[in-house]
What we know:
The chain has 182 residues and is mostly helical. The chain contains eight helices and no strands. Helix 2 crosses helix 3 (55-65), helix 5 packs antiparallel against helix 7 (137-153) and helix 6 runs parallel beside helix 7 (137-153). Helix content is 64%, strand content 0%.
Amino acid sequence: MTEQSGSRPDDNGLLNARVREAEEALTKLGASDPELAATLVGVLAVVASEAARTTRFARALAKALTSPDAQTAPRSAERPRRSRRAPGVIDPFAVLAESGETGLRSSLSELGLEQLRDIVSEHGMDHDRLALKWKDPQRVVDRIVERVESRTAKGAAFRGRTEQPALRDEEAAAPAGEDSSL
Protein backbone atom coordinates (compact mmCIF):
# COMPACT_ATOMS: atom_id res chain seq x y z
CA MET A 1 0.00 0.00 0.00
CA THR A 2 1.38 3.44 -0.87
CA GLU A 3 1.48 6.28 1.60
CA GLN A 4 -0.70 9.21 0.65
CA SER A 5 0.89 12.61 0.47
CA GLY A 6 0.02 14.83 3.38
CA SER A 7 -0.47 11.99 5.86
CA ARG A 8 1.16 12.45 9.25
CA PRO A 9 2.91 9.81 11.37
CA ASP A 10 -0.09 9.84 13.76
CA ASP A 11 -2.39 8.98 10.85
CA ASN A 12 -0.17 6.03 9.88
CA GLY A 13 -0.20 4.69 13.46
CA LEU A 14 -3.98 4.88 13.57
CA LEU A 15 -4.22 3.25 10.14
CA ASN A 16 -1.90 0.41 11.20
CA ALA A 17 -3.99 -0.18 14.33
CA ARG A 18 -7.20 -0.31 12.23
CA VAL A 19 -5.58 -2.72 9.76
CA ARG A 20 -4.56 -5.01 12.65
CA GLU A 21 -8.15 -4.89 14.01
CA ALA A 22 -9.52 -5.83 10.61
CA GLU A 23 -6.94 -8.63 10.28
CA GLU A 24 -7.93 -10.03 13.68
CA ALA A 25 -11.63 -9.87 12.81
CA LEU A 26 -11.03 -11.64 9.49
CA THR A 27 -8.90 -14.28 11.22
CA LYS A 28 -11.69 -14.96 13.73
CA LEU A 29 -14.22 -15.14 10.90
CA GLY A 30 -11.89 -17.50 9.02
CA ALA A 31 -12.01 -19.94 11.92
CA SER A 32 -15.80 -20.25 11.69
CA ASP A 33 -16.43 -19.52 7.99
CA PRO A 34 -13.26 -19.64 5.89
CA GLU A 35 -15.11 -19.17 2.59
CA LEU A 36 -16.76 -15.92 3.71
CA ALA A 37 -13.49 -14.65 5.18
CA ALA A 38 -11.65 -15.35 1.91
CA THR A 39 -14.38 -13.58 -0.07
CA LEU A 40 -14.22 -10.50 2.18
CA VAL A 41 -10.42 -10.41 1.94
CA GLY A 42 -10.68 -10.55 -1.86
CA VAL A 43 -13.27 -7.78 -2.01
CA LEU A 44 -11.37 -5.54 0.38
CA ALA A 45 -8.11 -6.10 -1.52
CA VAL A 46 -9.69 -5.14 -4.86
CA VAL A 47 -11.46 -2.08 -3.42
CA ALA A 48 -8.34 -0.86 -1.58
CA SER A 49 -6.17 -1.44 -4.64
CA GLU A 50 -8.52 0.49 -6.90
CA ALA A 51 -8.89 3.33 -4.39
CA ALA A 52 -5.11 3.63 -4.16
CA ARG A 53 -4.83 3.65 -7.96
CA THR A 54 -7.75 5.99 -8.81
CA THR A 55 -8.32 9.25 -6.93
CA ARG A 56 -11.82 9.64 -8.32
CA PHE A 57 -12.82 6.19 -7.07
CA ALA A 58 -11.27 6.92 -3.66
CA ARG A 59 -13.33 10.12 -3.33
CA ALA A 60 -16.53 8.41 -4.45
CA LEU A 61 -15.90 5.55 -2.03
CA ALA A 62 -15.22 7.96 0.85
CA LYS A 63 -18.41 9.87 0.07
CA ALA A 64 -20.46 6.68 -0.12
CA LEU A 65 -19.10 5.45 3.20
CA THR A 66 -19.64 8.67 5.18
CA SER A 67 -22.83 9.01 7.19
CA PRO A 68 -25.58 11.27 5.84
CA ASP A 69 -25.10 13.57 8.86
CA ALA A 70 -21.44 14.07 7.98
CA GLN A 71 -22.33 14.84 4.35
CA THR A 72 -24.77 17.62 5.29
CA ALA A 73 -22.69 19.14 8.08
CA PRO A 74 -20.43 21.28 5.86
CA ARG A 75 -23.41 22.64 3.94
CA SER A 76 -25.15 23.83 7.10
CA ALA A 77 -21.89 25.35 8.34
CA GLU A 78 -21.55 27.35 5.11
CA ARG A 79 -25.01 28.89 5.21
CA PRO A 80 -26.93 28.69 8.46
CA ARG A 81 -30.68 28.49 8.00
CA ARG A 82 -32.91 31.06 9.54
CA SER A 83 -35.52 29.91 11.98
CA ARG A 84 -38.61 28.66 10.25
CA ARG A 85 -41.96 30.25 10.79
CA ALA A 86 -45.14 28.34 11.45
CA PRO A 87 -47.16 27.34 8.38
CA GLY A 88 -49.90 29.75 7.38
CA VAL A 89 -53.32 29.19 8.90
CA ILE A 90 -55.05 29.56 5.53
CA ASP A 91 -54.13 28.86 1.94
CA PRO A 92 -54.63 32.22 0.20
CA PHE A 93 -54.73 30.61 -3.25
CA ALA A 94 -57.61 28.32 -2.26
CA VAL A 95 -59.49 31.19 -0.62
CA LEU A 96 -59.08 33.35 -3.74
CA ALA A 97 -60.33 30.51 -5.95
CA GLU A 98 -63.38 29.95 -3.72
CA SER A 99 -64.45 33.46 -2.78
CA GLY A 100 -62.48 35.91 -4.90
CA GLU A 101 -60.48 38.93 -3.84
CA THR A 102 -63.15 40.21 -1.46
CA GLY A 103 -63.31 36.88 0.38
CA LEU A 104 -59.52 36.69 0.51
CA ARG A 105 -59.23 40.19 1.97
CA SER A 106 -61.96 39.38 4.49
CA SER A 107 -60.23 36.16 5.59
CA LEU A 108 -56.85 37.87 5.84
CA SER A 109 -58.21 40.83 7.81
CA GLU A 110 -59.32 38.42 10.56
CA LEU A 111 -55.72 37.26 11.10
CA GLY A 112 -53.06 38.78 13.31
CA LEU A 113 -49.82 40.29 12.02
CA GLU A 114 -47.74 37.21 12.87
CA GLN A 115 -50.22 34.91 11.12
CA LEU A 116 -50.04 37.12 8.04
CA ARG A 117 -46.24 37.00 8.17
CA ASP A 118 -46.44 33.19 8.37
CA ILE A 119 -48.41 33.15 5.11
CA VAL A 120 -45.95 35.53 3.44
CA SER A 121 -43.04 33.38 4.54
CA GLU A 122 -44.64 30.05 3.62
CA HIS A 123 -45.46 31.13 0.08
CA GLY A 124 -42.28 33.16 -0.55
CA MET A 125 -44.07 36.47 -0.99
CA ASP A 126 -41.31 38.62 0.50
CA HIS A 127 -39.24 39.02 -2.66
CA ASP A 128 -37.88 42.41 -1.58
CA ARG A 129 -37.34 41.31 2.05
CA LEU A 130 -39.56 44.09 3.38
CA ALA A 131 -42.96 42.57 4.09
CA LEU A 132 -41.85 40.61 7.16
CA LYS A 133 -40.64 43.88 8.70
CA TRP A 134 -43.86 45.82 8.17
CA LYS A 135 -45.85 46.71 11.29
CA ASP A 136 -49.12 47.57 9.52
CA PRO A 137 -51.23 44.43 8.96
CA GLN A 138 -53.09 46.10 6.06
CA ARG A 139 -49.81 46.48 4.12
CA VAL A 140 -49.13 42.77 4.60
CA VAL A 141 -52.69 41.91 3.50
CA ASP A 142 -52.20 44.05 0.37
CA ARG A 143 -48.92 42.24 -0.39
CA ILE A 144 -50.53 38.81 -0.01
CA VAL A 145 -53.48 39.72 -2.24
CA GLU A 146 -51.18 41.27 -4.85
CA ARG A 147 -48.85 38.23 -4.95
CA VAL A 148 -51.69 35.68 -4.97
CA GLU A 149 -53.47 37.46 -7.84
CA SER A 150 -50.20 37.83 -9.73
CA ARG A 151 -49.28 34.17 -9.40
CA THR A 152 -52.79 33.01 -10.18
CA ALA A 153 -52.85 35.07 -13.39
CA LYS A 154 -49.37 33.99 -14.46
CA GLY A 155 -49.56 31.93 -17.62
CA ALA A 156 -53.13 32.97 -18.40
CA ALA A 157 -52.09 33.80 -21.96
CA PHE A 158 -51.41 30.12 -22.54
CA ARG A 159 -54.63 28.81 -21.02
CA GLY A 160 -57.87 28.55 -22.98
CA ARG A 161 -59.99 31.67 -23.04
CA THR A 162 -63.43 31.39 -21.49
CA GLU A 163 -64.86 34.53 -23.06
CA GLN A 164 -64.50 36.39 -26.34
CA PRO A 165 -61.97 39.22 -26.34
CA ALA A 166 -63.42 42.71 -26.55
CA LEU A 167 -63.58 44.17 -30.05
CA ARG A 168 -61.13 46.90 -30.94
CA ASP A 169 -62.62 50.39 -31.48
CA GLU A 170 -62.36 50.27 -35.30
CA GLU A 171 -63.96 46.82 -35.45
CA ALA A 172 -66.80 47.89 -33.17
CA ALA A 173 -67.52 51.02 -35.24
CA ALA A 174 -67.86 49.18 -38.58
CA PRO A 175 -71.07 47.16 -39.12
CA ALA A 176 -70.59 43.47 -39.82
CA GLY A 177 -70.01 42.65 -43.46
CA GLU A 178 -68.86 46.12 -44.43
CA ASP A 179 -65.29 46.88 -45.29
CA SER A 180 -64.13 50.05 -43.56
CA SER A 181 -61.19 50.45 -45.92
CA LEU A 182 -63.39 51.66 -48.80
